[in-house]
Predict the 3D structure of the following.
Amino acid sequence: MRGCFAIYYREILILRKKLTRQIASMAVAPLLYILAFGFGMGKDVEIGGRSYLEFLIPGLVAMNSMTQAFAIASEINIARFYWRIFEEFQAAPIRNRAYVTGEIMAGITRALLSVVVILVIGAVFGIILSYNLLFWLAVILNGFLFSSLAVCLAMVVKSHADQALLTNFVITPMAFLGGTFFPVDRMPDWVQALLQFLPLTHAANSIRGASFGQPTDPGSYLLLAGIGLVLFVAAFFCVNRAKE
Amino acid sequence: MYWICSGHQKRCSISWCHAHHCPNTAVIRIESLKKHYKSVEALKGINLRIGPGELFAYLGPNGSGKTTTIRILTGLARATSGDAYLHGYHIERESLQAKRQCGLVPQTLNLDHELTVFENMDIHGRLFHMDRRQRVRRIEELLEYVEIADRRDSPVKTLSGGLKRRVMVARALMHDPRILFLDEPTVGLDPTIRRRIWSLIKRIQQQGATIFLTTHYIEEAEFLAERVAFLHEGSIVAVDSPQTLMSRMGSWALDEVVNGEMETRYFQTREEANAHIEGQQGSFSLRRVNLEDVFIATTGKRVQQ
């Protein structure tokens, strides 16, 4: 497993070098959503007896932990196609699973960091919810799932352009439909049924439930863990496929 | 006549066996290696044995399959068929052990530009499971060795091309590999820096490493290599020492322009060449035979196209 820590160490070192920039970029989108949707559109809106801003913050936690975990795909691609650092990993005596684990750990770290940024922004606007163990567990599972997906896709694509295309098709729709900005139960039944297939719907429900101190659905946690595990194993094979 | 093969401590019936070229002691063994990229046949069944401590050059024009061979041997690409062994470890079946035997300096710079020289080398050491004390000691040693100790904490992006190349060589040596693969190590460098890299390569070989070098620079192969393989369109067309290969052509080459076309004749002595010129009119140029002459005679094409 030492190889996995070498990979993780490298990613964290890169993250540390541009920490200020990273934190600033992690803060921009949530800040805009809070201003536009939280204060602009949702000022007088209440959902389930809570202000829209209280509803929005856990949704943003789910969305941002997803996008930041998935963002390692871009980092991997830069290392692979631009700097060619990936070849240094391929030539090293480390197993595919060590490489995948190291990258996923880096993805989860980025997800956690982005969540801390949102919670701080939320606190600045006076929103402090219950950030308990179940809340963090859901964030970590969400990060695990989407960073595993990121490794898989980063190994399959052939260029940066392909990567951007996948992000547009996979991540953007999920960010808007997965219960981030509105309650899924207000949608028509058939849409609700469809949205149950999105992992982000389960992540947003779990994160929101935990942060409101409400009972959460263990099935959602199991589902996130299950899909994450399948993608984690798939990532081993995808790394193998990346070899010419 | 029997010799004792130093690598395997056993009798070997091959008369020229004295560690370097003995098949039993081959540090790099390649058997019928083929690689296809869709319909393109990049390697057409390569066979090669390279002995311990040997500096072996793989010479050929761009696209002849040099980099493909190195990529397969170092685990970056998969062979379509055939086998290869590094210090007896099969590159696919025992890939982790095989990778531990070798260091790679790829043709394209692949350093982390955001990180410092120290950090780049430190990550390499971690990937090869070296502990902290070992890593720090080795980095200090190697930076002294390649004469860039004063740039230890400089971000790589601030280094010149020649310095980056030296960092890459130092990084490849971090885990003390027995085999060093150098893929076009001086491409794009000016002649002065190129000479410095050459002397560094010579020094590394003197420390006992086996060096497998690809190049399309004739003078590089002539200056550095003990043996040279000519690679042409995915096949090895000749393997021997540069001197032996060149002596097949003669010692002197006489270039003559005939009807706008360059023609070259070869002679054993300068006197023979001069005798040929005497009484003839035209533009002649007499020079020593080089590997390019041998390559052209063997393949009909130039190395540096």
